[in-house]
Amino acid sequence: MANQGAKKRKEENTRHMANLRRLIVACNVIYVLVRVLIFHSSFTWKHWVGLLLTSAAYFFPYQQLAQMAKPTYAHDGDLLDGGFDMSTGGICGYLHDVIYITSFVQVASIISDKFWYTYLVIPAFGAYQSFGFIKGFLSHGSEGDVEDEKTRKKREKMERKASRAKFVKTRNR
């Protein structure tokens, strides 16, 4: 019964990584079959570059996720940790987003090359996130603003009220 949570997490991560692998392989097979074999007359060097770009966009996030999902074992072979929880957000969620956006772009680019512009969502979201991060640092400079008379008096009154001793009445029988 020991380490049941770790065993369960290991199985979930194995299943999850297998599903991601199937998604990547399916998108690559669909792209190669349809774009290269069926629409071979319109297949140019740009499409080869696109195939290499999507392969790299699959490879790096998948390798990072595989490293995160890798279980940890003790020297005697006992399972210590089942790996990172793949359902959490943060960097894990962003890596999943890159894989899902890549799969969409790869399959949709069969229809039109304009779907490659969807990749601009990734740096745009990164810029949006970093703007919020930088804005948090810049807003600290406005703390030294002069407070008006009314706000100052209200704050002082609240401070005096909070500093007074509080008495609790009890009933004596």
From TrEMBL:
Residues 142-173 are annotated as: Disordered. It comes from the Eukaryota. Coiled coil: none annotated. Its main location: endoplasmic reticulum. It is a multi-pass membrane protein. Keywords: Endoplasmic reticulum, Membrane, Transmembrane, Transmembrane helix. It is found in: Endoplasmic reticulum membrane. GO terms for cellular component: endoplasmic reticulum membrane; vacuole. One of its GO terms (biological process) is vacuolar protein processing. The chain crosses the membrane at residues 20-39. Belongs to the TMEM208 family. This is Transmembrane protein 208. It comes from Corchorus olitorius. The lineage of its organism: Eukaryota, Viridiplantae, Streptophyta, Embryophyta, Tracheophyta.
